[in-house]
Amino acid sequence: MSESTIVLITGANSGVGYATAETIASQPGYHVILACRDISKGNQARSRLETTNLKGTLSVLQLDVEDDNSISKAVNSVSEKFGRVDVFISNAGTTSPGSTGRDRLQKIFSTNVFGAMLVSEAFIPLLLQSSRPCLIQISSALGSVGLASDPTSEHSIPPWDEYRMSKAALNMMTIQMHKRLKDQNVRVFAFCPGLVRSKLRGDSEEAVSAQGHAGDPMESGKAILDIVAGRRDEYAGKFVWKDGYYPW
């Protein structure tokens, strides 16, 4: 396993995280760590994945990005078992469906910004043990200030104010991490998966499918695999999507 590329994905039991895990683990030479807040959901995801045509290997890790103790335990566990992380995919996120006001803002920022930053920072020392480290923050075109302020862009239309704000903050964090880590050979990306089937918006079929508009998250998984495999290295430090990159 030490010869495998070690890929850790937060929020890996559904949506983009699950599709990315399936896509990467379908390739030989990868070990995917399914990092999930609910360990039972993580184990269920692993069982489902093991019924597919996997060529890589899987393990499950309890990790709640909003819990510092959980983050610390997860880092120690991965350090003891693997000694490094080659690819860290910060995917856990929420739109906090059903909440309003200050509670909504706090929940969205706690996961999408504070959690993403603290868990990424905690795992960076293990990334630096890799000979070819890669850090991917799962963002959204809705967080692009450039697109939001362009009246001709389809991405300027949806409201989602609190979610947009959180992803704009995540994008700034990604820029800063890239500047700090590029001289240590870490490839840092923000990635927009696009509107795909996900529990990000809620658990109902209407929410998961975005009223029928959501695409297949496996397309996002394939684009993330391209980044992981080094096929998008010229875009390191940028806000990437499957067909190019967006303005910050």
From TrEMBL:
Domain of life, per lineage: Eukaryota
Positions in coiled-coil regions: none
Record GO terms (molecular function): oxidoreductase activity
GO cellular component: cytoplasm
Gene Ontology BP term (one): secondary metabolic process
SUPFAM superfamilies reported in the protein's UniProt record: NAD(P)-binding Rossmann-fold domains (SSF51735)
One Pfam short name: adh_short
Entry's family note: Belongs to the short-chain dehydrogenases/reductases (SDR) family.
Name by which UniProt lists this protein: Uncharacterized protein
Organism, scientific name: Penicillium cataractarum
